[in-house]
Automatic annotation (TrEMBL), chains A, B:
This is Transcriptional regulator. Residues 73-260 form the IclR-ED domain. Residues 13-72 form the HTH iclR-type domain. Transmembrane segments: none annotated.
Amino acid sequence: MDDSRQADAPRRIKSVQTASEILATIQRRSDPTFGDLCDELDASKGTVHTYLATLEDEGFVVKSDGHYRLGFRFVTMGETVRNETDLYRAGQLEVDKLAEQTSEYVHLTVSYRGKEVTMYESRGDNAIAMDYHLRMREAPQYLHCTSTGKAMLSHFNESRVRDIIDEQGLAEQTENTITDPEHLFRELEQIREQGYAINDEEELRGMRSIGAPIRGVDGDVSGAVSVTAPTSRLSGERFHTEIPELVMQAANIIEVNLETTVFERNR
Amino acid sequence: MDDSRQADAPRRIKSVQTASEILATIQRRSDPTFGDLCDELDASKGTVHTYLATLEDEGFVVKSDGHYRLGFRFVTMGETVRNETDLYRAGQLEVDKLAEQTSEYVHLTVSYRGKEVTMYESRGDNAIAMDYHLRMREAPQYLHCTSTGKAMLSHFNESRVRDIIDEQGLAEQTENTITDPEHLFRELEQIREQGYAINDEEELRGMRSIGAPIRGVDGDVSGAVSVTAPTSRLSGERFHTEIPELVMQAANIIEVNLETTVFERNR
DNA sequence: AGTACGCGTTTGGAATTCACAAACATAACG
DNA sequence: CGTTATGTTTGTGAATTCCAAACGCGTACT
């Protein structure tokens, strides 16, 4: 037979990749049955069965009356990740405060592999529960169409932004989404100057948000905070002055907290 | 060589078990280096290396300056699990309310494999941030020494409780922890009668809590809520009447929400 | 009732992957 | 500059994985 391993491709454990794919599939299609998974997974029934049994043993998957779901082990492990993330420890209380001040949704996010992940979310009194917000935390989001994302991008160097565009594209989420790279670069420059980014129905129709970057000790961006609300509640002075001020203040306080957090950890 | 597979042991994927063990080790020892992992993992350096590279590719692990941590993928997957858990959807708002009413920590937990996992936590104004609470959500906890745990146990049938005791033991967390099975059974009966459970410094010195079970449509326990506070703030009337009332009310409302949630999902 | 069918589980055995060991880089010391 | 500590790559025997096919079981259909 041919030497199927690529000459200089580094070695990987194929079974782990397979398991990862199975988990991703379970996450994507919620509540799949055994059959659903077999269809989607080009592997024989027997193989899929053995993987699922193993993942169930390990707590990564739960089977209940024929349907598979991700197991509670992800809850505890996700919690560990958050608690070990400096930004979360430094920002959590401040995000709660900002949510109270504005009465709206506040998000704390980090960039990860060209997308962003929500580390914490706090809901002010006006913010009604929305399925959208739930789903948003279930998968990494694009950076080019959120206020936090653009706030972070504005402090990456140009080549890094270009790489991200190449890899992720500039998906048109709404008619306001920026889909032209040069347009994006111009806006990033403006964001850098004014210190905050706005998202004017670029991600979701009817929703605006304002985000500011959080820079770490070394000057690198380590995350961003944002306030999100329906267009009707976020316009005029409030949209262009008040909220941006509050968001930037919060970001600044988190930056300071972050320095002491990191300092204490390295002590 | 001998036929190493056990005659009637069901088949599993060994590589997935190995990967799971590596992840557990990273979680247990925070920030381990490559060397740390090799010591702890009886596998050759080369093997450990290949696994870590694979897990990093898949987003389950992050390497930064020589230290390994769990990756952000756990955050998004954990979020998916929570959002798909009926109890969380049904109970979240009610837990927030209870936290506001009492000004203390409120927990929403589910039982899982003889232990309990915190699905949601809300902090009232009096509740100061404590490392203890962070860590508590990072691993499943024992059922016999928490108010939520005992509340859930009180509605399991006896043989199930015995199985859990056999498997998990009755670890003595403080001098107040119940370590005698018969003592536990007597208390569970009392809990069943009065409708709520108390934890009087049985898990952690100086901390009391009050928990009530949440029963699902089919009568099975699907979780529990609790209020936790320092002994100084939880005594007398407040400990024996006021808070138990509030906790039981909250549990009851969540039960109702749960019915409609489940009903809507099955529609 | 009988039988065909769908669905999930188990099993034999060939093909592939895994995992050890040892060699190889690379960085960190004296 | 040699020596140790640490991390990465590679060759190869041994063990695992994975397909295909058979099996069990409950259900729908005749």
